[in-house]
Amino acid sequence: MKIGKPSLSFWQIFNMNVGFLGIQYSFGLQQTAINPIFLYLGAPEDMLPILNIAGPVTGLVVQPIIGAMSDKTWSPRWGRRKPYFLIGALIGSICLFMFPSSPVLWFAVGLLWILDVGNNMAMEPYRAFVGDKLPEKQFSLGYQMQSLFVGAGILLANGSIVLFQYLFGDQSVEVAGSIPTWLYYSFYIGGILSITTILWSVLKTPEIPPTESEFNEIKASRNKPLAVRIAQPFGEIKEAIKKMPPFLWKLGAVYLFQWYALFVYWQYITPLFMNTLGYSTSEAASQSAQMSLTYNIVTMVVALGLVPLTLRFGGKKVYSISLVGTAIALFTIPFIKDPLLVLAPMVLFGVGWAAMMGIPYTMVSKVVPQERRGVYMGILNMMIVIPMGIETLTFGPIYKYFLGGNAINAILFAGVFFFIAAVLALRLNVSKEKTDTVL
């Protein structure tokens, strides 16, 4: 049963989403700095996909389970979702402080697994948290505000990499098997932001207590034996998938190509610049960070601007066109030899990233039951990490044997997948029975 929720002010929605800044700063480091670290520590290029399997696996396991658990949690002091993203942020913070000191490749890979557990533990309840607090008419603003903080966090992460490489990169010569000290500072900043931004949102935003029927369900869950309580999230996930709205199956098809392509881009943009611009690993990592910096600035600028566009033209049209723009960006990048001019396609990429981080969550929140929003947001994340997992297992051989071990071909391959995702996005329709405002 849906309950009436008061509309929140712009700044209340802003404060509620500040914690996403720290989570996405960490994610920004994963996009841009983790693969260069693997290269520094001696990883061959065709091994990059499998070394990134931590993200898909932890996302697949952690997020839906945490989502189901948070649906059945309530503390008068800590709330429903807050305990999970507080613990997740603390785990992530510790890992970020340790990461640049990784002595060998296996240590860095192991830390990535733990970091991803923390980030996923924080991420999933945060998506549900926004849906819990806002009335349906403010979903678009809430999730696009979250998209703005996605851009801001990743922007800060990549901006710090560019800055520190510029200031201190010349002071350290690349040594095989070691991580340059200039990269340490970005991770230390991330460790601080991870916990402080979450605390800001926790202290500024009270959660809405459960309804009487929800509270009775939570109490009944607490009275069950421990073994039953441990197994319960898995059962809820299974039942939720059985009853999943057709819209989510269609979105899963879009995500299959979209997130496979994104993982290819993040893994091979640094090797691309080592190829096309003749850069060293540090120079290529800095150029990759500039690319990410550019598209996340665009994301911040356009994120809230997508709200009136989606209300006027419909979410699926804006989403699809944005994905086409992302495909065009990837088709263009490998053929630009100027380090400044190659930033231009990131405008299209940034618009696409803003759409990807906001529009699908707005649409999903309108078609899933309020009392099961946590588990469905977890299932939505499964639709993200499964394509990533497929990519980590399949793209290494594809890159080595079918794409000639050439990063240019890898980026073009990702562009084709974005175009396919754009076509599939045209099938996304939010049922008119579910909402008065079609998005």
TrEMBL record:
Membrane topology: Multi-pass membrane protein
Pfam family, one: MFS_1
Record-linked InterPro entries: MFS, MFS_dom, MFS_trans_sf
Membrane-spanning parts: 47-70, 82-99, 147-167, 182-203, 247-269, 289-311, 318-336, 342-363, 375-395, 407-426
Span of domain Major facilitator superfamily (MFS) profile: 12-433
Keyword annotations of the record: Membrane, Transmembrane, Transmembrane helix, Transport
Tagged with keyword Heme: no
Keyword Transmembrane: yes
Protein localization: Membrane
Name listed for the protein in its UniProt record: MFS transporter
Originating organism: Maribacter cobaltidurans
